[in-house]
Amino acid sequence: MGVFIIDGGIPLKGTVRISGAKNAILPALAACLLTEGKSVLRDVPDLEDVHTMCDLLASLGAKVDFNVEKREISIDTNSVTEYTAPYELVNSIRGSFLVMGPLLARKGRARVPLPGGCAIGSRPVDLHLKGFSALGATINTGHGYVEAHVKGRLTGARVYLDFPSVGATENILMASVLAKGQTVIENAATEPEIVDLATMLVSMGANVTGAGTDTIRVIGTDKLTPAEHIVIPDRIEAGTFMLAAAMTGGEITIENAMSDHLKPVIAKLRESGVEIAEELNCIYVKAPERTKAVDVKTHPYPGFPTDMQAQMTAYLSQAEGTSMVVETIFENRFMHISELKRMGARIKIDGRTAIIEGGVRFLGAQVRATDLRAGAALILAGLCAKDRTEISDIYHIDRGYESMEKKLQTLGARIVRV
Ligand code: EPZ
């Protein structure tokens, strides 16, 4: 299953390059189903979730070639004949539910297993299905599958999202680009990954305006041409390395990072005393002598990202003073706290609020990654502990961080994978 062994206490120094974003590449892969022909995606990270998504597209009949060395995936969707996504692939990554919209748009039908819940919450898909119904699809759920079909083409509609769901926005956007007429998605998610998907769809000939705002307008087209698309850098990976430098008393340069995508994280770290310089395509981070406690509340973009909450909880355990962290997006995203407490953290949980007593010096321990970002939080704590930390179940970490230990080694960290 793989274990990371970390002998911490080393200030991180040097330069690290951020990989393409997991949460941009997954919808981009699904979007290739909207066209016939060969699409090419570039700067693709070598992540478990990307391989799983490639297997899913192949199971639908696409010819997928993931050249890991060149960081490039080519997908020929001429031969997509299937419209049923296999259970074992959908069950392993939630992002695979994103094939529903494109299959519905392209084939008029889709049959996808209901994605399971995961460590961080139940993660329903009701908003996705509400959107597909509004576009004219008939939805049936049963035996753990969702089946959607439409006679002929989808018809454009006005869709209001009760919550600015990232996945629902992406799925409905992809379904709408081949629908007849205009679609308006209101209260849409505004994450950079939505903008990146819209950019790719427009390059394929779609008519999409307003991505990045809470109202996205689409005028359906009859056909889309294959894409050539470079995915945006992973803002969560960049944020994680920013915290790693700030927590270990280090000084690093993060290349291929778009500071525009990290405004709330940069603001909070500056508030906490960290020195940050934003260049065109990179971010420079220098740790202060002591970091100060700050309060954090997660919100949909452009608020503080929920995907940085676990890492920030580890960071605040070391800061001077007491902090409060409120997780408003997912109902169970404090799984990392019990593991951090095994390393000396002093945190009290009250519902969706965590009260963090600062000034902790982490101590090495044997801990377990319970989900992707919780695993990242444990790595951060291990990098600070003067003695040895062993993190098990690191497959969670490999889902979203490319060669994490190699990148940390280039910054001087003593971390090995066994
Ligand atoms: C995406 O998940 C990301 N995953 C998540 O990243 C991220 O945490 C999340 O957005 C929020 O930013 C991918 O992009 C593959 P949501 P998604 O739909 O789309 C509720 C990571 O660590 N909801 O915005 O599933 C839901 O229960 C992962 O990289 C409904 O109620 O997130 C949750 O409380 C974890 N009904 C909230 O919305 C729906 O139909 C946010 O979910 C859909 C969502």
Describe the model.
Helices cover 31% and strands 24% of the residues. The chain has 14 helices and 23 strands. It has helices spanning 22-31, 48-59, 87-90, 100-107, 126-134, 166-176, 192-203, 235-247, 263-271, 309-318, 335-342, 372-384, 395-398, 404-410; strands at residues 3-7, 13-17, 38-42, 63-67, 72-76, 109-113, 138-142, 145-149, 158-160, 182-186, 207-209, 215-219, 228-230, 251-255, 275-278, 282-286, 296-297, 322-326, 346-350, 353-357, 366-368, 388-392, 414-417. A hairpin with a 2-residue loop joins strand 19 and strand 20. The longest helix is centred in the middle third of the chain and has 13 residues, at 235-247. The model has no long low-confidence stretch (mean pLDDT 96). Bound molecules: ligand EPZ. Ligand EPZ binds at residues 22-23, 26, 94-95, 121, 123-128, 163, 165-168, 189, 306-307, 329-330, 372-373, 400. Ligand EPZ binds next to helix 1, helix 5, helix 6 and helix 12.
What gap, in angstroms, lies between the N and C termini? Answer: 9 Å
Q: Give the strand order, joined by hyphens, for the main sheet.
A: 21-22-1-23
* Distinct ligand kinds: ligand EPZ
Q: What structural class results from the helix and strand content?
A: alpha+beta
Describe this structure in a few short sentences:
The chain has 418 residues and is α+β, with helices and mostly antiparallel strands. Helices cover 31% and strands 24% of the residues. It contains 14 helices and 23 strands.
Strands, helices and their partners?
Elements: E1 3-7, E2 13-17, H1 22-31, E3 38-42, H2 48-59, E4 63-67, E5 72-76, H3 87-90, H4 100-107, E6 109-113, H5 126-134, E7 138-142, E8 145-149, E9 158-160, H6 166-176, E10 182-186, H7 192-203, E11 207-209, E12 215-219, E13 228-230, H8 235-247, E14 251-255, H9 263-271, E15 275-278, E16 282-286, E17 296-297, H10 309-318, E18 322-326, H11 335-342, E19 346-350, E20 353-357, E21 366-368, H12 372-384, E22 388-392, H13 395-398, H14 404-410, E23 414-417
Parallel strand pairs: 2-14, 3-13, 9-10, 17-18, 21-22
Antiparallel strand pairs: 1-22, 1-23, 3-5, 4-5, 6-8, 7-8, 10-12, 11-12, 14-16, 15-16, 18-20, 19-20
Helix pairs in contact: 1-2, 1-7, 4-6, 5-6, 6-7, 8-10, 8-12, 10-12, 11-12
The chain binds ligand EPZ.
Ligand EPZ binds at residues 22-23, 26, 94-95, 121, 123-128, 163, 165-168, 189, 306-307, 329-330, 372-373, 400.
